[in-house]
Here is the input.
Amino acid sequence: MTLQTIIILVIIGIASGILSGFVGVGGGIIIVPALIFFMGMSQLNAQGTSLFVLLLPIGILAVINYWKAGQINWSFGLVVSLAFVVGGYFGSKLALKISPNLVRFIFGIIMVLISVKLMYSGYQGLSNEK
Here is the structure.
């Protein structure tokens, strides 16, 4: 691994960590596209690498900060976490069976839909502040 590669990976990690702690995103929304575009990874390889990154730490220090501030619903988090494990298993099985280009296409559609929804709700909130 070259120094340039290490620097790019560190930047991806820092950026996704900051966004994860700031707005609760990082893995699929930041790490996967960054690995594809900056590191030249395939969609599936980037997804697998992102899941590896999130396997253990899952933002432990950010979780501690939110816990200290009383901003974690532990029962909701536990249910979602358990369901996430099951969903992750079946989702990875499906992704590995279909075309990588179809996976990338679906991923892009999901990101666009989420982006439009977030921008629209943010715009409405700004309009209501006036």
